[in-house]
């Protein structure tokens, strides 16, 4: 009887490690202290991100013994010069980026491909065919 009172259930643990991705995609492989495959990728709401091979990522471990794991993010790139608290800078491969600034400015870098209507100052945009040309 007294032995059963001495035994306590395992307390769920949470731990994190820095790892390197070995398999890219939505179900990644990561090496931390060993390789683990088929980890789900989590990110902020409204944001989709797939880590590339060789990316340094944050792996969160939970559950009894830390057997439940997921990739939750990676080290930020260099912060843009002059970036202020509350601003958002999204970057992709190469030089593509979207910068949401505190003053309401949106800076886009890369090719912009608009699928659907473009509204400028409340009016639908229609390209001008002002005498041909390029």
Structural summary, described in words:
The protein is mainly beta and 134 residues long. It has a domain at 15-74. Helix content is 4%, strand content 37%. It is built from one helix and ten strands. It has a five-stranded antiparallel sheet, with no helix packed on it. It has a three-stranded antiparallel sheet with strand order 6-7-8, with no helix packed on it. The longest helix has 5 residues, at 2-6.
Portion of residues in beta strands equals 35-45%
Instruction: Provide the residue-averaged pLDDT.
Output: 85
Low-confidence stretches: none
Order of helices and strands: HEEEEEEEEEE
Largest sheet properties: 5 strands, antiparallel
Please count the beta strands (DSSP E, at least 2 residues each): 10
Number of helices: 1
Structural class: mainly beta
The rough form would be described as: elongated
Annotation keywords:
134 residues; mainly beta; five-stranded antiparallel beta sheet; three-stranded antiparallel beta sheet; 1 helix; 37% strand; elongated
Please render the helix and strand layout as text:
Layout: H1 2-6, E1 15-23, E2 27-31, E3 35-40, E4 56-62, E5 68-74, E6 88-91, E7 97-100, E8 106-109, E9 119-120, E10 123-124
Antiparallel strand pairs: 1-2, 1-4, 2-3, 4-5, 6-7, 7-8, 9-10
């Amino acid at each position: 009887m007294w032995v059963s009172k001495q035994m306590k259930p395992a307390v769920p643990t949470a731990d994190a490690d820095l790892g390197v991705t070995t398999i890219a995609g939505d179900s990644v492989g990561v090496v931390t202290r060993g390789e683990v495959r088929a980890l789900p990728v989590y990110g902020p709401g409204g944001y989709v991100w797939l880590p590339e091979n060789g990316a340094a990522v944050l792996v969160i471990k939970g559950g009894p013994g830390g057997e439940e794991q997921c990739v939750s993010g990676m080290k930020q790139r260099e912060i843009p010069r002059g970036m202020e608290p509350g601003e958002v800078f999204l970057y992709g491969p190469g030089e593509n980026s979207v910068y949401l600034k505190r003053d309401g400015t949106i800076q886009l870098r890369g090719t912009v491909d608009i699928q659907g209507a473009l509204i400028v100052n409340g009016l639908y945009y229609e390209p001008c065919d002002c005498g041909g040309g390029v």
